[in-house]
Amino acid sequence: MSESERRAHRPSARDRTAGGPIPASCAWRETDPVGRRRFADLGPLHLEAGGKLPEVRMAYETWGTLSARADNAVLVLHALTGDSHVTGDAEPGHPTAGWWSDMIGPGRPIDTDHYYVVAPNVLGGCQGSTGPSSDAPNGTPWGSRFPYVTVRDQVAAERELADRLGVGTWALVVGASMGGHRALEWAAGEPDRVAAVAAIATSAQSTADQIAWAHAQIGAIRADPRYRGGDYYDAAAGDGPHVGLGIARQIAHTTYRSARELDERFGRLPQGGENPLGGGGRFAVQSYLDHHANKLARRFDANSYVVLTESMNTHDIGRDRGGVESALASITARTLAVAVDSDRLFLPTQSERIAAGAPSGTYRLLHSDYGHDGFLIDFDQLGPIIAEFLGNRAYLTR
Ligand SMILES: CC(=O)SCCNC(=O)CCNC(=O)[C@H](O)C(C)(C)COP(=O)(O)OP(=O)(O)OC[C@H]1O[C@@H](n2cnc3c(N)ncnc32)[C@H](O)[C@@H]1OP(=O)(O)O
Ligand SMILES: N[C@@H](CCO)C(=O)O
């Protein structure tokens, strides 16, 4: 069996139900299973679309040491279902290693022997920062009552966190995908506080295509009867909206990978001993998507998925700033825009636009078969690009 066949076939069909009943919500809430997460209580936050959150808590992790001049701080902003655990090995309570361990750490492109790295969990998420699964003032989860938050609101919360950490100007703000939205929003909205920005596989404003994919994902969650309009937090395991959330992940995950990769990797292979002819069995690629659906439903909250996806839909650094080109032109930070050539969700032209519009913009392209997820896989290319942008000669000549 070839490597591609081996990858395509694992694990077995039994994976579809692996792990037992799925909890109604897998929000981490106020817990800190890894033991290194910290929390900052920021008080009330007035929201761009109206209303306010009376109490905002931000969960975050840090690595390295802030210099006496506070000029070595790097803000790392995660994507839709990411979290603050950007680097480190797998450990109890966090079964996966940091999602950017190859990029951040001693001797890595973002070298924590030199930089003070801060990674917050996004506002509206479900990994310790205030979100729909957090308790509202009446002591029960916000659920359907959670207000609309924008990318700008998320950055406003991160700005408050920066104030509390004693960071005036970030040496670098870096993010990919949804994290890139926030990185660009930081650069356009807080030019005095960002010396350099790296926006990876992202866009300055959401496109109709991205909103269209998101629409189907949100629809899948809302159509799940177990979603209960967003108020499902007291449901028993197995009785939460994991079906809708899983379908949303399957739609999204397909857009995160390239058609070429899926075709070359899975082809028309059936999954294990299953027979798709007649409708009973699955193709391997269907099993693969089932696997990713199952995994996400176990680690993420459906309401957070909706809240964050909606915030991505209205992402537009040009809003109330005279349009995207005007907002890009106002960026004073050194700007790096990185695209993945096979990304069918965040097209390279959107990164080219960022680099062309920012006064000191640089554009770099990753050559990858993996599509949008290339920023989570192709570190042999992304590492040197970021190291070069930071002038990390030790990494480049290692
Ligand atoms: C900043 C952030 O975004 S942080 C969040 C990033 N992490 C995630 O999104 C978690 C979801 N995972 C992913 O998106 C991807 O796994 C990545 C991008 C992290 C890594 O990509 P890859 O290394 O190419 O992993 P890939 O997409 O092939 O998935 C591998 C999994 O699919 C499973 N798989 C492969 N083929 C099949 C199949 N035919 N049937 C069922 N499962 C299958 C593998 O067993 C493996 O399972 P495991 O992850 O539980 O060990
Ligand atoms: N796999 C990433 C892709 C989104 O950019 C995530 O789940 O956040």
Automatic annotation (TrEMBL):
Quaternary structure (record): Homodimer.
Give the pathway annotation. Answer: Amino-acid biosynthesis; L-methionine biosynthesis via de novo pathway; O-acetyl-L-homoserine from L-homoserine: step 1/1
Enzyme Commission number(s)? 2.3.1.31
Q: Which UniProt keywords are listed?
A: Acyltransferase, Amino-acid biosynthesis, Cytoplasm, Methionine biosynthesis, Transferase
Name the UniProt record assigns to this protein: Homoserine O-acetyltransferase
Cite the GO molecular-function annotations of the record: homoserine O-acetyltransferase activity
Its main subcellular localisation, reduced to a broad class, is cytoplasm
